[in-house]
DNA sequence: CTTCATTGTGTATCAAATACACAATGAAGC
DNA sequence: GCTTCATTGTGTATTTGATACACAATGAAG
């Protein structure tokens, strides 16, 4: 961590608050993906610091908050359209933990007065996103060194209250499991029933009966079985399904 | 509306933003009550203006948002403890409609520069409250002339996006009807089954079968039938129930 | 003491959730 | 080619909950 050179433009960006943004408000996104039979969450690692956070950002003064969340995620994932819903707003006065922020700035060799906008309290609007893992191209930005997927079961130490935000998002997702077509967003266009079941089991954290699950899903009008089967694997080839 | 005398203290309050408050963030509360077989919503009428709004306010810099909502409602209802839950955050850039604000200030004879904080965009966190109608003492404050109950079915013209906020709150309440003990908060401590049923029918906007409703409610472990009956009314005296 | 609107209760039926078993498939190994 | 075996596809019995519906009990009003 010694001998860091922080580009001058970072310092300017950080020292002078950009007036285009709504004050004391931020957005944090919990982006869920599904791959290798695991739920994945997109995380960002900050430059000059070991710690991670959720992808997030600020809101332009003339921008609806949903649109801000879309813009932030387009930068991070490359995706224009994704399942994205506000799920809760986090407003504990100590949630942004200026200690974390201080540590980050120290690491970057930046020293700011106590009244700098970065030390202000932020109220953050939480957004839940579901994406097709394979379509995402995680992108870093000026201030982040890594942007990538982590297994939901192996989330590293996060800054601020982001662990809590992920837990709340997961709770929301579980509640919505049978009312929203989550498979439509998390799986590829064509998928098998065992794949869909594994997704549900992973989100719920409990095994489901194979036959009853198929029955329940088949009764949903939005799921259609195709004529095709998925060949290639060992054993009997399962049918492919798709969301209409 | 002519010849209005706005106290000097109002002007000071409005012209100089109070730095104790979080910027560009506000709280709006949808307070539901139940009386005379009607759902009621608490509304505030502003001085020098015909229009109404939801009771709301700002967040102290050192205050959790839930606590801010509690404080705001304590001032308006006199109640310390009530059912209160965040249900959505409203962040359309035009939601605060500066035209409404301008009209209000004009009516008060106050003229502010365009960059005054009151013309800033506000992101508002919506809170849903359930209260026992009889225990509420609606209070006005410096800027409001009336604070009182309105039938949900006869809401007057509201400023900003508050009609939309009420609709969203009602949708949330309907979804929670069978998972949250709403009767516990909306009805007096002891109530009859017909009263509880009428509450549910009013919230849902549809009639329910008397016998099936009683069966369903009786299966909830949180509702207990008392030995007492409610006498006084004509016809057979119904049993009293209570939430444990 | 009759009337009548209202309350309390029970039962038949239908739909959904759950528990559970056996036949069909298809790659792998002999 | 035939057997093996993990996996997929399907069906049925049972339980639970939701819905539809009917009749007896109550208690004030007349």
UniProtKB/TrEMBL annotation, chains A, B:
InterPro entries: NUDIX_hydrolase-like_dom_sf, NUDIX_hydrolase_dom, WH-like_DNA-bd_sf, WH_DNA-bd_sf, WHD_NrtR
Domain of life according to the entry: Bacteria
Xref: Gene3D superfamilies: Nucleoside Triphosphate Pyrophosphohydrolase, Winged helix-like DNA-binding domain superfamily/Winged helix DNA-binding domain
Domain Nudix hydrolase: 22-174
Protein name listed in UniProt: NUDIX domain-containing protein
Annotated source species: Rapidithrix thailandica
Lineage, broadest ranks: Bacteria, Pseudomonadati, Bacteroidota, Cytophagia, Cytophagales
